[in-house]
Amino acid sequence: MGNNRNASSSVRHRWRIIRQAMRMELREHKVSFAVYVTLRVLVIAMAILQFFNGDYENVFLCVLTLLLLLAPAFIQLQLRIELPSVLEVIMLVFVFSAEILGEISAFYELFPFWDTVLHTLNGFLAAAIGFSLVDLLNRSDTTKFELSPAYLALVSFCFSMTIGVVWEFFEFAMDLLFGLDMQKDTVVHSISSVMLDPSHGNRIVSIPDITQVSVNGNDLGLGGYLDIGLIDTMEDLIVNFIGALVFSIIGFLYVKNRGRRDAIVDSLVPRRKTAAQDYLRVIIEQADKRTASSADDGERDRDR
Predict the structure, then answer these.
(1) Domain map (residue ranges) of the chain
(2) What is the pLDDT of residues 105-139, one digit of tens each?
(3) Any transmembrane segments, and where (predicted)?
(4) Which residues 6+ apart lie within 8 Å of 121 measured at CB?
(5) What is the pTM of this model?
(6) Given this model, what pLDDT does residue 69 score?
(7) Where are the beta strands (DSSP E) in 115-193?
(8) What is the number of H-type helices and E-type strands within the chain?
């Protein structure tokens, strides 16, 4: 019983430290904090609206969004990296645009380019995260890990593309197992396939100018053939490629010209926290000092 109480007390103490450090992290940059507060208020308002509309699935999405808005601060705390304000704002806006605007407000349907923009941003942000992780190892005093700027950019690019591919795996699994439509369909007007070869050989047969498709005798009314997710998946990967490539080039230039000041690059590349910015360590040290001070006071009281 005593061990359980000690464990519970330790967890509460750790959680209290993380909350205090998160508050400091969130308030560090005025611009990103203002964006965070604004988006948080909008998400809470949307959650209340969806609750009264009886759409509890969207309420869950709002709760998920509130947690995801904390992700940049949490990443900075745990990895001890400093995200520039510009990059942090991009991450916050990305989360809001994907969940609240994209899913709940149906921007994916209202604006066909919405998904493309977000996947491009995803490639960019994933490359930034991959770059920062490897760059920190590259500059670590305790880890023997040295990569040239070109290899560092390549690893960053590959990390981003891997994230993009894994996400497409997730979309495919959701569609296959739960009957969702995460891999959006596209209406096409021509198809080519060896399965249409009447001789069952390997000859490609094409059907051009498709304007009508019927399923079980019912006209789909789409004005063409329905491509099931393939084009959407490839477009997502292509724009992810573009986003990853752009940041990889930025990262390459940053490492290549390290030491030179470049406002654009500096505003996008994460870096290691200084001791003063490592708020988790600061809070832990303050707590340790208070504990030590309390112990000293207790000893003095006993001596009296």
Answers:
(1) 112-179+230-267, 186-227
(2) 999 889 989 999 999 999 999 998 888 888 877 77
(3) 33-52, 58-77, 89-111, 117-138, 150-170, 237-255
(4) 90, 94, 243
(5) 0.81
(6) 96
(7) 186-188, 191-193
(8) 11, 8
